[in-house]
Design brief:
By secondary structure, this protein is α/β, with parallel strands linked by helices. It is 39% helix and 24% strand. It has an 8-stranded mixed beta sheet with strand order 4-1-9-10-11-12-13-14, sandwiched between helices. A 4-stranded mixed beta sheet has the order 3-2-7-8. Strands 5-6 form a two-stranded parallel sheet. It starts with a strand and ends in a 16-residue tail after the last helix. This is 2-dehydro-3-deoxygluconokinase.
Length: 311
């Protein structure tokens, strides 16, 4: 399996509040997916490369982040570095039920300027060499209006050139500048029209569209003609739709959940990895459940290497 995956998005410094104090790391939805993809490929010794596309500063913390990604096996060749910007930062506080509260400092983060400062033709030349492009709703939400148009035009050209596009809406209301969901809806709909593999979360979709049932959500999403639609429902399982056929894929109960950070991101990584190797969406969903089920048993977005399951 010789494949190249490009992951587009933002990574931030992560501060985890624990019983013993504060612990520093890094995280961001797309970076989490990139790391888990790279780990799965390396563990299986398959020829799958994962490149991360973003922007950071030229400070020591940005250096540390890039070094950490490289140690994970993520290619950082195309990470832009801006001397006048810094990475964003977020703090996680965990609740007793395993859910978490986030506090962000990201308004002037380097990643917000990546599309605006880079040349689209140059990015297209680089990215068109990749088999699969992965991005999320956060990749979209951090762009200003002009950059958003540039990014969507880039994805459209890549889709037309034969790249597979995988997308997770990962709706975060606070990231969108308008008080109504209309802008996020329009942006996501434009992206879904270019998407081959949609890895979505039922709660996010219903919050964005005020839908009352899973059937309502599935009906709306299937109108996009997606080759693969995965609608995740947390600990219950996920609905997989391919070629118009719906199949529910349940999870195995996890009784020692401590932190659900990156559950969806890790699911997406395992799904994409398994689908590339098997071309079987159900096997891919089961792999997603396996990895996500292990991730939520540990604190932080990126679990220890020795805690990784075998898929």
């Amino acid at each position: 399996m010789k494949k190249k995956i490009a992951v587009l998005g933002e990574c931030m410094l992560e501060i985890q509040k624990t019983q013993s104090g504060l612990r520093q790391g890094f995280g961001g939805d797309t970076l989490n997916t990139a790391v888990y993809l790279a780990r799965l490929a390396r563990a299986a010794n398959v020829d799958l490369s994962v490149s991360y596309f973003t922007a950071l500063g030229k400070d020591h913390l940005s250096d540390d982040m890039i070094n950490s990604w490289q140690q994970e096996g993520v290619d950082t060749t195309y990470v832009a570095r801006y001397a006048d910007k810094l990475p964003g930062l977020y703090l996680i506080e965990n609740r007793e039920d395993g859910e978490r509260d986030f506090h962000y400092w990201r308004q002037d983060a380097a990643a917000r300027y990546w599309i605006a400062r880079e040349d689209n033709d140059h990015l297209y030349t680089i990215l068109s060499d990749y088999d699969l492009i992965y991005l999320s709703g956060i990749t979209l939400a951090i762009q200003d209006s002009a950059s958003l148009t540039k990014l969507l035009n880039l994805i459209k050209k890549l889709k037309e050139s034969g790249c597979v596009v995988a997308f997770d809406t990962n709706y975060r209301e606070r990231l969108w500048p308008t008080p109504t969901p209309a802008q996020a809806q329009e942006c996501y709909e434009q992206t879904l029209a270019l998407t081959d593999i949609a890895l979505l979360t039922l709660d996010d979709e219903q919050k964005l569209y005020q839908e009352k049932s899973q059937n309502d959500t599935l009906t709306r999403l299937q109108a996009f003609g997606l080759a693969q639609l995965v609608l995740k429902s947390g600990s219950d399982g996920c609905m997989v739709v391919t070629q118009g056929k719906e199949q529910w894929v349940p999870t195995t109960a996890i009784h020692d959940v401590v932190d659900t950070t990156a559950a969806g991101d890790s699911f997406n990584a395992a799904y994409i990895y398994k689908w590339l190797s098997s071309q079987n969406a159900i096997q891919a969903a089961l792999a997603g459940h396996t990895l996500a089920g292990q991730v939520i048993r540990h604190y932080g977005a990126i679990i220890a290497q020795d805690a990784m399951p075998t898929l």
